[in-house]
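Sharing a chain and its predicted structure for anyone who wants a worked example. Both blocks are below, sequence first, tokens second.
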Amino acid sequence: MKRVDDVTDLTFEQAFAALEETVSRLETGGLTLHDSLSLFERGQVLAAHCAALLDRAELKVTQVAPGGGETLHLDQ
């Protein structure tokens, strides 16, 4: 099993895929308590990494969007 703290170099897509795999393994069951806890801990780290990457992306969009990130309304 991979170390919990080895997610910092993962892209959002890689981290999200790893998170999905982790959740799937936990949902499948049949793991020892130790393995379940290790997977849960890794899932928490992956989720936090994904959230941080999304926050950074949102900040970039806010900085480059006209109006400082105000909601844009498009005419239909």
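Comments welcome. Helices lie at 12-28, 33-64.
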